[in-house]
Amino acid sequence: MSAVVTARGVAKDFPSGDGTIRVLHGIDLSVRSGEMLLLVGPSGCGKTTLISILAGILSATEGAIEVLGQDVRHLKPPAAARFRRETVGFIFQQYNLLPSLTAAENAAIPLVIRGERLDRAARKARVVLDGLGMGAHADKLPKHLSGGQMQRVAIARALVHDPPFIVCDEPTAALDAASGHEAMRQLRESAVRPGRAVVVVTHDPRVYGFADRIARMEDGRIVELAEDAAAIRRMTEH
Amino acid sequence: MIRIALRMLTGDTAKYVGLVCGVAFAVMLMAQQASIFVGLMLRTAAQVIDVVDADLWVMDPRVIYVEEIEPLPESALWRVRGVAGVDWATPFFKGLTVARAPDGRLQQVFVLGVDDASLAGGPPVMLQGSVEDLRRPGAIVIDRVGALFIWPGEEPAPGKVLEMADRRATVVGIAEASAPFTTFPVIYTRYAEALRFAPPPRKPLSYILVRAQAGEDIDALAERISAETGLLALRWQDFAWRTIRYYLTRTGIPINFGITVALGFIVGAAVVGQTFMIFVLENLRQFGALKAMGVSNGTLLRMVLAQAGAVAAIGYGLGIGLAAVFFEVTGRFNVDLRGFFLPWWVAAIVAFAVVLIILVASVFSIRKALTLDPAVVFK
Q: Binning pLDDT at 50, 70 and 90, where does residue B9 land?
């Protein structure tokens, strides 16, 4: 399988007092087409920084990042915004749905950002919501949805513009075990397909079973890569 | 994205209403107070503005506003009539006296004496009767609201009588006159009658009204009158401004109204600025999510400006509407407040002030949104 995302020697420094602090140390990682890769590790190990860099939100201090052959590291802010708009789907831990928009309108936002009219985009988003079993809730405001339902709207929002790269930040952190499991199942079923890479940041070992591969991070480094079912099982049990 | 921005704005009903009401309140306060100030200033020059048939007012050069009369000798009238380019020049008397109604009610009134022959300087709008009726002995025309002050509860009508300086005056007509600054009734009569109703000091002539010959340059004529007679000749607009300037510089009125208008601006800016800032801050995470999903800074700027613009437009519409309703209602039901109105240019200046308020209110919010790190959504 070809790599959708490739990171080589990625390092990231943040300012700290008079100097800087390095939070990522020479990360080498590729995410292949049609796979779901989980980034796991303790809080503060650099998982979120790494997906922010892969998604073009933060720029790396060192190293090279390519998404579908495009150099992401050296993008200027407008080009980075265009890259995210066209290439990346996002699922946030807190969902970040706009409270005044319906589920369908929320799911339609990436299409609106790309220039479609809100009503037309919402019609397309309904189809995606239907696929996630949310058709009956398409006209509801977020305040009338449960956590699991809001996460499914967030998944629909990440899928609606059919991006080749999806990043998820702790998608089950705000959900109970059953809802979290269901959200991961739907993410796996709907998002993972040839031509697309999905990276999920989590420290919930109950969802490790949904991964094709798992990269475990500690102190800004990838310290372990589970690449087959047996290795994933071992990591889950550990 | 603009539609989404507006939905974000209206989604939080309490803040949206608060923002719109803040702007509406500021607009109403500024428009209403500024308009009343303009109305009051126009009232100071009401009797100058109401004389519609003269091109120039001629007066003693020491006169600095219309109420401060420095009487002229009657010979001044002949000197003015002798200036080339003068079509006609007539005497104009302005005095104050006390009118006594048949029931004993006393009321201070303005007495305006117009030329006996031509009646030039007479009331601008007759509601009942005719200006020509002033030729009758003891005849007066009174302004509609003044009649209500002297005969409260009675419909203004010709035929009523009153006394001034122990002389009987008969109302022969009702006129519409601009409200004077002091709101005293305005009584028009012939010059000769005016001298009896409001006995003047030694020299009786308050002003001389001049009409220029056709095609005459009025400014040149004014200069010629001044040069040849030593008197001051002013267009009515210049005399009205001279009077208004007196009140602007010699009274506390502009400071008082200025403070209220400034307060409207400051309170409006503070309330709207703070509420809008809180609104944007509370939506920062949403803006961050949009930015992460690829919304450019330019689009974000347009979204915040659209929200601010919508608040400004709706708040302005409401506020200016309320101010207009205030003047419409008070003008109709309260004679003391007649003549106050909302000038279009006050509405335009207030619109400019609202744009300033909204820009001040938006600038910090916009800065916050534009410098927002999209990575905030992962924190």
A: confident
Q: How far is CA B185 from CA B18, B150, B175, B305, in A?
A: 45, 8, 11, 52
C-alpha–C-alpha distance, residues A54 and A7, integer Å: 8
Confidence of residue B187 (pLDDT cuts 50, 70, 90): very high
Q: Read out DSSP for B163-211?
A: EETTEEEEEEEEEE-PPPTT---EEEEEHHHHHHHS---S--B-EEEEE
Which of residues 298 through 357 in chain B touch A, CB cutoff 8 A?
A: 299
CB contact burial A153-175 (16+ within 10 A = b; e otherwise): bbbbbbbbbebbbbbbbbbbebb
Q: What is the pLDDT of residues A20-39, one digit of tens each?
A: 888 888 889 888 888 989 99
Name the percent of chain A lying above pLDDT 70. Answer: 99
> Phi and psi (nearest 5°) for B139?
-80, 140
- Compute φ and ψ for B196, nearest 5 degrees: -85, -35
> Tokens representing B131?
């200006």
Chain B neighbors of A98, CB-CB under 8 A: 4, 7-8, 11, 286
Put simply, whether A93 touches B (Cβ < 8 Å) is yes
Residue window 31-90, chain A: list those with CB within 8 Å of chain B: 48, 51-52, 55, 57-58, 77-78, 81-86, 88, 90
Beta bridge partners of A215: A39, A225
The ipTM (two decimal places) reads: 0.86
CA distance B266 to B270: 6
Tell which CATH architecture fits domain A32-48+74-237: 3-Layer(aba) Sandwich (3.40)
* Domains in chain A: boundaries: 32-48+74-237
The tens digit of pLDDT for each residue in B57-108 reads 999 988 888 878 888 888 898 899 889 989 999 999 888 888 898 888 888 8
pLDDT in tens, A183-227: 788 778 777 888 888 898 988 888 888 888 888 898 889 888 887
Write the DSSP assignment of A178-216 as a string of letters. HHHHHHHHHHHHHH--TT-EEEEE---GGGGGG-SEEEE
